[in-house]
Amino acid sequence: MSIVVIGNGPAGHRVVERLRHHGHRGPVTVLGAEPVAAYNRALITSVVDGSLAADSLALPRLPGDTRVRLGTAALAIDRAGRTVYADDGTAYPYGVLVLAMGARPALPGGLRTLADGSGLPPGPAAVVGGGILGVETALALRRAGRTVTLVHPHPYPLNRLLDDTTGVLLAARLTAYGVALRLGHRVVGRRPGAVVLDDGEVVEADAVLHCTGVRPRTRLAREAGLAVGRGVIVDDRLRTDDPFIHAVGDCAEHDGRAVAGLSAAWDQADALAAVLTGGSARYRPAPLCVRLKAPGLDLAVLGPPDAAGDETVTFTDPARARHARITLRQGRVTGAQLLGLERAAATVVQCYDRRLPIPSGRLDLLLGRAADTARGPVELPESTVICACNHVTKGALLRACREGARDLSAVSAATRAATGCGTCAPEVRGVCAALFATEGS
Amino acid sequence: MNASRTLVLVGHGMVGHRLLKTLHAQDTAGDWRTVALAEESRPGYDRIALSSYLTGRTAAELSLARPELLADDRVDLRLSTPATSIDRGRRTVTCADGARVRYDALVLATGSRPFVPPVPGHDLPGCFTYRTLDDLDAIRGAAVPGRPAVVVGGGLLGLEAAGALRALGMVPHVVEMAPRLMPLQTDEGAGRLVGGLVGALGVGVHCAAATREVVAGPGGRVRAVLLEDGGELEAELVVFSAGVRPRDELARAAGLAVGARGGILVDGDCRTTDPLVWAVGECAAVRGRCYGLVAPGYLMAEAVAARLLGRDAEPFPDEPDLSTRLKLLGVDLASFGDIHARTAGAVSLVCSDHVRRTYTRLVLASDARTLLGGVLAGDASAYPVLHGLLGRSLPASPERLLARA
Question: In the CATH scheme, what is the homologous superfamily, with its name and number, of domain A3-105+214-276?
Fold first, then answer.
């Protein structure tokens, strides 16, 4: 069986790698529109900030009988003749066709390819759009020592993922990191070396990066008459409505969701390779997990923002811009957002992925400190105030008991405990009873 | 009977009574006699348990005055005898019955009056306040089981009133200006939970709502309450519980200084601008601030009793303990310390149990160990322990402390 893959991005590359892993020996042809070998798109921002050289992103060479045609774009699919026509003038017949064209920026000037990421003009930069890519790009540019302005039309970045508190604190962290924020604004024009915002402000920017989202590349599929929604519609076996054509990665739409991101693309590629080699695998979308890491900035978002559960735990530390909100069902995470709580985020992500209950001692978990693992009743310190009305401490009650008070009224007479509002009486009795129990009086 | 000095106490509410009781319990030398002028026809009673009067407790059971106090010949409690003026030059207080009483020390414990917002119709027949046993008798007389009633004010007292109306078989609606019920005792999350629980009991909850007018029916009695947003709530009767105002008129007329927002101005020792005159409880503006809770009032009463006996007493704290725990309409609620995490660097941990319908907020110092305050709603059984740990390092994880009770 001859397999043709259109697209040499991470999804297409992964399909081929996994096909070989599952023992597929037949010929595979990969058509890549970009002139460079497949690379890890997730690391483009590392090229932006200069921490990685462009060629270090390259993915490993594909083994076996694999032809990779770089700089070769598919032009049309002849479904009846099971042939792909490409701009190199060649016809590529297929037994099975895999669409992995990915997505393109919704607006020109977007950051998507290595070419976008390297060779930016020097000087101040403006990032347009405060989604994940926009925030990561702004951080990368800042790391590279640039002046960066992030323009976003909502009150805080990542507004579709975050609750208000996390969002506002994330904005504070970005500001502290040196990213100038223009929230609630849009870019309405460009001038040489600058962009113009909707309130008339002119923001200096030699480089302008649009991170305003991507659209699945679907033209080929649409023209071939395949079912297309936002992306190319596929079932759990990543199959389109043509049994000989599959689609994976950002160009595919599974269960109403397209552009699900890199890790979904990898999962889909894994599932498809198994399907094509005769396995019974089905693609199941992994739980949503977004992780943003930069020095001084650690954000984890798990599950949908409106995750349901039977319990919600929230931790807020506005002075240090730290915030967590974890929704649980029977102790298991159904949704979470953690900002600035790196160690806790690592634990919570693990529990979420493996569907394990989170450890008890949630405050300690959130703060990443040693948990209080003791069991049984808590021994209150003697300085604990038991009777608030008359400010009687546990120590004073114990003294009264040791000096002979044997019941509530005697203890009350000696200490004035429980003579105010009286609500502490059970607690007073409890302290005395515990003493008598241990000292055997 | 050889008491050499006379205290005139104006007001026999909970705080006035505490002062009277403490003074005579500690005045072993018998230096003082007290003339206590009570405006109401009965001795002071437990106003905190006021609502229980509608569910079976009698006025006698609520009374604070034990027979031995009334029999004490050092105590001259005059009921239905409000003070009408003070002559500080002559050191006398004139009473409504014309009597004039000379004092060596004067303590004003005149309390508060309910604040009734001056909306049109606020004085129609069928409008009530909720402070005295007489108020409750009037409400009981006007209640019609099965009919709606409106409570203006969703604070602690407003919910007390709603609970009382419900106990009388009425269908209460609470109108609160703030976006949540009990805004002084709750944060947003606790307020939301309380609103949900109270609503589930059949109480109409209308937050972020202002009363525009009380309108009369054909007979001239209350028929409905109109809201600023145009809404209309049918009402057989209306109870105003929109806060209180200190009763400082006697002190004003006597030329004593009052606080910027009302209340008889006193220093940390509860002394007014006249060294022979003191003020305690809700009528006192300690360093300019009035306190509407009984615990700070008791603190004032005990300190003044000590000073009258020539003993030292701690000055009133700058940040008094304003903790509250209450059970209203079956909803357990407690708040203590810095509930809104206003302390610099403070952090909060909030646990909401959507199944048990409980809400817990703990406010900790920047070390995330020292307890600064908290709010417990739905289940406040951990309150005594947590309140006792205020300002101290938590000896165990919050879960264990919460589970302990």
Answer: FAD/NAD(P)-binding domain (3.50.50.60)
* Chain B residue closest in CA terms to A313: B351
Confidence check: pLDDT of A84 > 70: yes
Contact B349 A315 (CB under 8 A): yes
Cβ neighbourhood burial of A438 (10 Å; 0-12, 13-18, 19+):
exposed
Q: Which CATH class is domain A385-439?
A: mainly alpha
Which comes out higher in pLDDT, residue A39 or A369?
A: A369
Tell me, yes or no, whether B317 lies in a domain. Answer: no
Band (A253; pLDDT cuts 50, 70, 90): very high
pLDDT tens across B310-356, in order? 999 999 998 888 888 888 888 899 999 999 999 999 999 999 999 99
Residue A2 in 3-state DSSP? coil
Q: Is the ipTM of this complex over 0.85?
A: no
Q: Is residue B341 part of a domain?
A: yes
**CATH, domain range A289-367:** 3.30.390.30
For residue B384, the chain A residues in CB contact (below 8 A) are: 386, 388, 423-424, 426-427
- The span from the CA of A3 to the CA of A21, in Å, is 15
Distances (CA, A) of A138 to A53, A103, A170, B286: 18, 21, 13, 54
Q: B254, B92 in Cβ contact below 8 A?
A: no
Residue B188 and residue B91 share a domain: no
Contacts of A309 in chain B (CB under 8 A): 354
Residue B397 pLDDT > 80: yes
